[in-house]
Amino acid sequence: MATAKKLPSHNYRVRKYDKWTKKYVSFTAPDPETAENMASEWAMKNKRRRCPKKEKKHELTVAEAVRAYIDSKNNILSPSSIRGYEIIYRNCLDGIGDKYLIDVEEKDLQEWVNRNAGKYAPKSVKSQYGLVTAAFRQQKILLDFSSVLLPRIKRSEPLIPTTEQIATILQMVEGTPIELAVTIAVTMGLRQSEIAALKWSDYDGRTLNIHAAVVPNSENKLVRKETTKSEASTRIVEVDELCKQRLDRAEHKSENISPLTPRHVLKSFQSLCKKNGLPQFTMHAQRHGNASMMLANGIPDKYAMARLGQSSPNMIKNVYQHLYADKQAEYNKSISNAFSKIYDTKNMTQENS
Predict the structure, then answer these.
(1) How far apart are CA 15 and CA 24, in angstroms?
(2) Most exposed of 91, 165, 253, 259 (fewest Cβ within 10 Å)?
(3) pLDDT tens, 41-80?
(4) pLDDT tens digits, residue range 219-230?
(5) Domain at 104, CATH number
(6) Structural domain range at position 206
(7) Which secondary structure element, helix H or strand E, spans residue 235, and what is its range?
(8) 179 with 200: CB under 8 angstroms?
């Protein structure tokens, strides 16, 4: 730590060398302790500064850094991811967006998180924080990001249709405009984006070739992209008998198997759910339902993941928890019966001897 020197004016001064500007910076105060503290505080901030590029000498604000990060990933990330980032950029940087990166400290990030936690869901705040910290890292600004506390995400059980409800769903959509979309979701577990991208040319009478998706872009307009969510999502899935019957008898009114938009399908589906006394299931819940059917029938996790086009087992684990909750009483009874059987067998053995 630099020592303050007394000046003829009776003030005290500390000089620090700025390696970025190649000049000395002076800190003057009426007492040596204040001057030294001023110099130390500057040194801490200056340590985090990035070396300014020759073509861009001015520092970036947080909003500018976020903008630069989004633009740098524009052709790498999915349109839906970019769309989410654009929403954060436009709406969620209040209180921090106009600050220069080198002036931001951990407490500033914490205050920003605290404010947003009062307006957004915990999961949304986590996404906002992830984008901002990624922008910091891209600009080589190092902070102790782990010291910032985020709101805790409350774990909730997904609403998954039971076997009886699945039967009702398959019956109620028969003959409706959403018959194929819902049947494919229920029996094959495809995502809405994948169903919307399916063309009749992807169906060979036995399998469906999943290789594209329809997703909203940064302007919230639906676009078709010739890639799926992940490498594991690009797959060929065998069609079950019920789905095959409905596909084979359907009219080819357009090149798409389901010409309706995902939003239209969901709205019509939930309307039918209401009429038939079912919960307001989402279309994604049918994907969970498909997973639960596979697990309940002893399909190995690895095969279930491949059929669903998953690169991680997270959703499978969630469905496992759902099944355990539904069958807990049954499992408890089975265990109880097992111990009773052991006890009865021992008693019978003793009596016979």
Answers:
(1) 6
(2) 253
(3) 888 777 655 444 433 434 799 999 999 999 999 878 877 7
(4) 778 888 888 777
(5) 1.10.150.130
(6) 163-314
(7) strand 235-238
(8) no
Whether residues 173 and 300 share a domain: the answer is: yes
Within the chain, what is the greatest distance between any pair of CA atoms?
111
Together in a domain, 210 and 128: no
Q: What is the pTM of this model?
A: 0.63
Residue 133: name the closest of 123, 121, 145 by CA. Answer: 145
- How far apart, in Å, are the Cα atoms of 352 and each of 338, 339, 343, 344, 345? 21, 20, 14, 12, 11
Tell me: do 141 and 184 sit in the same domain.
no
Q: Which residue has the tokens 């799926």?
A: 228
pLDDT at residue 111 tops 80: yes
Encoded tokens for 288: 């969970």
One-letter-per-residue 3-state SS of the chain = CCCCEECCCCCEEEEEEECCCCEEEEEEECCHHHHHHHHHHHHHHHHCCCCCECCECCCCEHHHHHHHHHHHCCCCCCHHHHHHHHHHHHHCCCCCCCCEHHHCCHHHHHHHHHHHHCCCCHHHHHHHHHHHHHHHHHCCCCCCHHHCCCCCCCCCCCCCCCHHHHHHHHHHCCCCCCHHHHHHHHHHCCCHHHHHHCEHHHECCCEEEECCEEEECCCCCEEEECCCCCHHHCEEEECCHHHHHHHHHCCCCCCECCCCCHHHHHHHHHHHHHHCCCCCCCHHHHHHHHHHHHHHCCCCHHHHHHHHCCCCCHHHHHHHHHHHHHHHHHHHHHHHHHHHHHHHHHHHHHHHC
What the block records as the tokens of 176 is 């409706």
Q: How many whole angstroms separate alpha carbon 152 and alpha carbon 107?
A: 19
